Amino acid sequence: MDALAEIYAIRVADLVVGFGRQTVLDHLSLDVRRGEILGLVGASGGGKSVLMRTIIGLIPKQSGHIEVMGHDTERGFGRARASVAATWGILFQQGALFSSLTARQNVKFPLREMLEMSEQLQDEIATAKLEMVGIAPDDWDKYPSQLSGGMTKRVALARALALDPSIVFLDEPTSGLDPIAAGDFDQLIKTLQTTLGLTVFMVTHDLASLNVVCDRVAALADGKIVAVGPMSELLQSDHPWVRAYFHGKRSAMLQPRQN
Ligand SMILES: Nc1ncnc2c1ncn2[C@@H]1O[C@H](COP(=O)(O)OP(=O)(O)OP(=O)(O)O)[C@@H](O)[C@H]1O
């Protein structure tokens, strides 16, 4: 493995992705360091989900280069591709739990699909993951419709962690949660980063999450990453979109009002 692959979990270089005549990502480059929590911000419809989905291979790229944990994601299908895919877990925007399966069965699902192991071992791993994300035993056999929004996100996170990935992709993990539940979820992500050494790639509009949990923040505008660095640096950025995002009317509302 080359020296850069030891530093970076994800390397995206000169990536172009589009649909028909629309170019969404226009020669975009971004490196995500191993073990960091990277927050991705950008305008609605700006291409954050497209970037995430292209990295994990759900959307084809037109050109450019993507490497995950030192592997070119394009090279080799079958076994090699499966081993790359097993290095990440994904929490989609809508939680996306299977509604006909209980919390525990949802977490068992990837174990059953990807590994050969006894039912008992699947149960043990699933319950360990549910405990890790703070779901109490009374809730393990509930169906998604019986769980709160915050619990659903936690179960979805437990499922994303089922195969012990080294990277997790989170698409707006705190959307729809009240500020207390969102703060608890942020804390959980931070704890998992430190205890498991996870690399976290997180799309979010949540200013508090960006400020509290992200080691670095990347801003996507006009199909490119226009600024990347710790939040303190992003706040100093001269880029017009980044300035508008962090210093616009809504973020100003976070400051106490001067009467
Ligand atoms: N499968 C697809 N086919 C065609 N167009 C698509 C597809 N997926 C996304 N797009 C288009 O790509 C653009 C970027 O969408 P994307 O979902 O990445 O935005 P986003 O930055 O995640 O927005 P939001 O913050 O609102 O979730 C949009 O114009 C969208 O319509």
Automatic annotation (TrEMBL):
Superkingdom: Bacteria
CDD domains, per the entry: ABC_Org_Solvent_Resistant
Organism: Rhodopseudomonas thermotolerans
The name this protein goes by in its record: Phospholipid/cholesterol/gamma-HCH transport system ATP-binding protein
SMART domains: AAA
Entry keyword Nucleotide-binding: yes
Classification via PANTHER family: PROTEIN TRIGALACTOSYLDIACYLGLYCEROL 3, CHLOROPLASTIC
Function: Involved in beta-(1-->2)glucan export. Transmembrane domains (TMD) form a pore in the inner membrane and the ATP-binding domain (NBD) is responsible for energy generation.
InterPro entries in alphabetical order: AAA+_ATPase, ABC_transporter-like_ATP-bd, P-loop_NTPase
Keyword Membrane: no
Protein keywords: ATP-binding, Nucleotide-binding, Transport
Molecular-function annotations in GO: ATP binding
Matching Pfam families: ABC_tran (PF00005)
Domain ABC transporter as annotated: residue spans: 10-247
